């Protein structure tokens, strides 16, 4: 892709930065029975009910598998009759389902800007990979492909990578790109800034409560915790399922950036969320294990 000769630019792209601040969701919490907190919901039944009755833009839900409780989140656009319907739905589902408000609006974290570029859009590189035919490539968010099927390393720059396949909306938010130059040096590292790097050692499943970090081209290195699994988010652009919910903040341009642990576990790819890194918010990630399996690729 012709970028291996420019170490600074390459490692900056490989870094794809985002989030360190864990911020609580703001809002009133509703349960159907405050006196029965020891009871749990059937998560499969609960999520099916939510899909049928609460699939409106601005809503999301995730499961804590350690308790089988379901957390439903609504952004600031869910008001009036839609909010009343959501409250009524949650209250009728049992004490294991909880409803909270998130600050801001659920949106995809892509914008015009720095890191990897397609047209007027900017996203962040996630993890470098090797494809099943041995080509160097990388994973990023699937919704980033809306900006174009080729990415460059600077606004209006020469194309450096081309999309092979992508998923969005649907079961995940991920895309596989291959570098146009097969000789591209694409190490399995995340550049966390100030000359520091984390060597990526393996792909790992997310676990609720685990401390995680994220890199992105807008907000740099951020950290927080995993708060839910198998999350569904109803973006304005469509429903995305199978996501990881976290307390890590993110902003526009951070999309596609890596979610990982300090020990080198690769965990996810930044999708979207609400809030920002000043006020905090909720951010969702596409599991890297699912992305690798779907694209028949492996981490570098």
Please summarize the sheet with the most strands. Answer: 6 strands, antiparallel, barrel
| Global structural class | mainly beta
Succession of helices and strands: HHEEHEEEEEEEEEEEEEEEEEEHE
Number of domains: 2
How much helicity do the residues have?
10-25%
Verbal overview:
With about 300 residues, the chain is mainly beta. It folds into two domains: about 1-25 and about 105-300, Trypsin-like serine proteases (Thrombin, subunit H, Beta Barrel); about 45-100. About 15% of the residues lie in helices and about 35% in strands. The strands form four sheets. Strands 15-16-17-20-19-18 form a six-stranded antiparallel beta barrel. Strand 7 and strand 8 form a beta hairpin. Mean pLDDT is about 85; it is low at about 1-35 and about 110-115.
Q: Summary?
A:
The longest helix is centred in the N-terminal third of the chain and has 12 residues, at 80-91.
């Amino acid at each position: 892709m012709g970028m291996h000769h420019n170490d600074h630019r390459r490692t900056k792209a490989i870094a794809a930065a985002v989030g360190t601040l864990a911020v609580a969701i703001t809002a009133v919490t509703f349960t159907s029975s405050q006196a029965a907190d020891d009871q749990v919901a059937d998560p499969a039944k609960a999520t099916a009910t939510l899909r049928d009755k609460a699939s409106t833009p601005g809503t999301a839900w995730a499961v804590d598998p350690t308790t089988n409780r379901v957390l439903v989140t609504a952004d600031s656009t869910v008001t009036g009759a839609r909010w009343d319907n959501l409250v009524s739905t949650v209250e009728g589902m049992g004490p294991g389902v909880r409803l909270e408000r998130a600050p801001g609006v659920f949106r995809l974290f892509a914008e015009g800007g720095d890191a990897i570029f397609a047209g007027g859009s900017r996203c962040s590189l996630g993890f470098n990979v090797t494809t099943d035919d041995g080509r160097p490539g990388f994973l990023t968010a699937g919704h980033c492909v809306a900006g174009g099927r080729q990415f460059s390393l600077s606004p209006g720059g020469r194309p450096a990578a081309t999309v092979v396949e992508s998923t969005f909306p649907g079961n995940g938010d991920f895309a596989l790109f291959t570098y146009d130059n097969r000789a591209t040096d694409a190490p399995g590292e995340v550049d966390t800034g100030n000359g520091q790097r984390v060597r990526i050692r393996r792909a790992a499943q997310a676990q609720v409560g685990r401390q995680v970090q994220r890199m992105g081209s807008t907000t740099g290195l951020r950290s927080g915790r995993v708060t839910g699994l198998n999350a569904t988010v109803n973006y304005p652009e469509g429903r995305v399922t199978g996501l990881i919910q976290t307390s890590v903040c993110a902003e526009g341009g951070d999309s596609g950036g890596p979610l990982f642990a300090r020990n080198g576990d690769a965990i996810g790819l930044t999708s979207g969320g609400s809030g920002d890194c000043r006020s905090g918010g909720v951010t969702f990630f596409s599991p890297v294990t699912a992305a690798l399996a779907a694209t028949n690729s492996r981490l570098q």
